Amino acid sequence: MELAAAASEPAGPDQPVREARLEARIWYATLLTRVRGLQPAERLLTGEDPCGEPGAEPVADRPHRPEAQAALRLCEAEIHLAGGRLTEAATAAETGLRLAAQAGNRGLPPRGHVVMAVCSVRSLDLTTGLLYANRLRDAALLGQENLMPGQCVWAAAQALEARDGMESVAHLLKGIVHDEVLTRDLLVSQPAAAPWLVRAGQRLGDADLAERTVRTMNRLAVMNRSFRSVQAAAEHATGLYARDADALEAASERHLDPWARASALEDASRVRSARVAERDRAVDLLRRAAGAYLGAGSSRDLARVQSRLRELDDHGGRPTRSRTRVSQLTDTEFAVAELVSQGLTNGRVGSQLYISPHTVAFHLKKIFRKLDVTSRVELARSWNRILVEERDDHPRESGPDFLVRSAVAARQAG
């Protein structure tokens, strides 16, 4: 990190900031983003000194060759994703990928593919998520240059798990935790990764996966004491492994990453909900998790949390609704319609939303009636059109659920 910071500075005291090497500034901003130093990273890309001193004109406004512009846009995409701004992240990633293709650069695309895969999964656009997961797989099979292999495997695993369940990616997760290079790249760069792997180990009944993740994350935390994001990830993973709700709540306060913060709150709620005396606290934590997921633009996770809220609290997660067709759907019905429209079976939809296939079928009957469709095929064919039409017809509609739905509709229509 210190070397990257030094390289991003002007070569001499009389050289203006604008002449510092662009590539070094982008790389330093990338490293800052990985440890969630988002504000100094953004200042680097706008031409300011990372310590807050005013600099030159924004880097993005200067003419650069396509390869440099591609790296710049992909770095911006990673910053937006880390900040929970999924729409901006996807837009910047798509621009960066286009510029990288124009420049014939094969080393940069994995960065954009990771951003697109994660954004798509979190916004319930599984079709696009799987598209980029396959591109990450193809790049690996072709042996293309990749400076972030662990993050690539994790992004692909998230997309595949969303479609086929955790069992389908067990071999990928084993490969991560048994490879030191993959593990180090992933756990330091993605504060939500270690808890995600521990959660996967618990769901799979794979104690070795969970234990290895916790041990490695804690070792990395000892080696990187100055990085708050690494400390938060270690506390989160350890608290989840030990089922320590207090540690999980503490981790949620320490996390700088909004999605990781939301997942820590959800994990803490799950632990507390197992104890009848702490049920009210569990509901409060889950409501906070819902708000955090909303802030991070993650409609997939928000739908799951709202479904869980209704189990814990009869009034949890039910915002006021208008009379539009889509707004007549409950949050669970909306999530079911979104997933069914992407071709998932009732079983796969149920596993994503933690409800039974029978309950999915029950919701589908109500969805068909409310949307005036008669089959899954008709729903899949008309779903995106309905979303876009209602977004255009009701631009002023408010409420947290509609904000998430608008983001999903925009991505699907884009």
From TrEMBL:
Source species, domain of life: Bacteria
SUPFAM superfamilies according to UniProt: C-terminal effector domain of the bipartite response regulators
Residue stretches making up the HTH luxR-type domain: 322-387
Pfam families in the cross-refs: GerE
Cited InterPro entries: Sig_transdc_resp-reg_C-effctor (IPR016032), Tscrpt_reg_LuxR_C (IPR000792), WH-like_DNA-bd_sf (IPR036388)
SMART domains named in the record: HTH_LUXR
Keywords attached to this entry: DNA-binding, Transcription, Transcription regulation
Protein name per Swiss-Prot or TrEMBL: HTH-type transcriptional regulator AlkS
Organism for this UniProt entry: Streptomyces cyanogenus
